[in-house]
């Protein structure tokens, strides 16, 4: 199984969320999701697995509630190492009576839920990439019924101890205002469209099923939320190295996207106002 979150790939390594109640949200991400706090202050908490941080919660000054029909987060997706691990997660969430969605996407098996402030979360395990089907640069994906019983049988006897070592941020799925604007932006960054619907695009590097997805399921020409709004604050996009990062920045600037040179990286917004920190 190829590792699509290291090496030559460009991927989402960390997600930052705006939240209104830090205590409640930290408790949820520890007790329900299975992350642990690596660092915390009065208005910020960084969580992860082992010593790998991949989620930070912020309470902005003048925080505003999450709005409907705006651009921003559809869900962020946490990737666990195996489907046995996913089975352990499933059993844990059933025990807690957490409302769940689920799907077999052919390339992965996934569970879906929301945190207490309405942020979408996917927890998933990839199916071996040697079993994925590709045709003309597009990977075959679907939304089939997940075999819950098989996952539970695989995890029989496995105790819940939080998410396992090797868990990481797998991908990011966003609401955008216009698909074609989004396509141009992400292709400029170096992503390829590997699957598409009339209302959604799935994009990746190095032959993954998707590192980023975008949709217009909230409608087209929708507004960008104010910076203090609960939801996606920013995400870190990790490049292979400094050279790959600089080449991407040059392409962005050549296409007239505004890029800010910040400490240890660059800041850029997609056409719908979703913010990225680019690092290499």
TrEMBL record:
Highest taxon listed in the record's lineage: Bacteria
Q: What parts of the sequence cross the membrane?
A: none
Alphabetical list of InterPro entries matching this protein: Glyas_Bleomycin-R_OHBP_Dase, Glyas_Fos-R_dOase_dom, VOC_core
Q: Boundaries of each VOC domain copy? A: 11-126, 168-280
**PANTHER family recorded for this chain?**
CATECHOL-2,3-DIOXYGENASE (PTHR43279)
Q: What is this protein called?
A: VOC family protein
């Amino acid at each position: 199984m190829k590792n699509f979150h290291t090496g030559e790939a460009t991927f989402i390594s960390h997600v930052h969320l705006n939240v209104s109640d830090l205590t409640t949200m930290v408790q949820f991400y520890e007790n329900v999701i299975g992350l642990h706090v690596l660092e915390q202050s009065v208005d910020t908490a960084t969580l992860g697995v082992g010593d790998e941080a991949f989620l930070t919660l912020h309470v902005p000054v003048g925080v505003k509630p999450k709005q409907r029909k705006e651009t921003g987060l559809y869900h962020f997706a946490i990737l666990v190492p195996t489907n046995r691990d996913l089975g352990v997660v499933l059993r844990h969430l059933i025990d807690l009576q957490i409302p769940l969605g689920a799907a077999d996407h052919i390339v992965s098996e996934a569970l879906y839920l929301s945190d207490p402030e309405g942020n979408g979360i996917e927890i998933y395990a990839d199916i071996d990439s040697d079993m994925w089907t590709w045709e003309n640069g597009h990977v075959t994906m679907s939304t089939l019924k997940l075999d819950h019983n098989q996952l539970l049988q695989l995890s029989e006897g496995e105790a819940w101890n939080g998410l396992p070592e090797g868990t990481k941020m797998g991908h990011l799925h966003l609401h955008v205002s216009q698909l074609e604007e989004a396509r141009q932006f992400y292709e400029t960054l170096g992503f390829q469209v590997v699957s598409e619907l009339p209302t959604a695009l799935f994009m990746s590097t190095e032959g993954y099923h998707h590192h980023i997805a975008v949709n217009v399921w909230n409608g087209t020409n929708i507004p960008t939320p104010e910076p203090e709004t609960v939801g996606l604050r920013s995400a870190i996009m990790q490049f292979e190295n400094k050279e790959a990062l600089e080449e991407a920045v040059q392409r962005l600037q050549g296409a007239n996207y505004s890029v800010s040179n910040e400490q240890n990286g660059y800041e850029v917004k997609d056409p719908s106002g979703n913010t990225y920190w680019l690092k290499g």
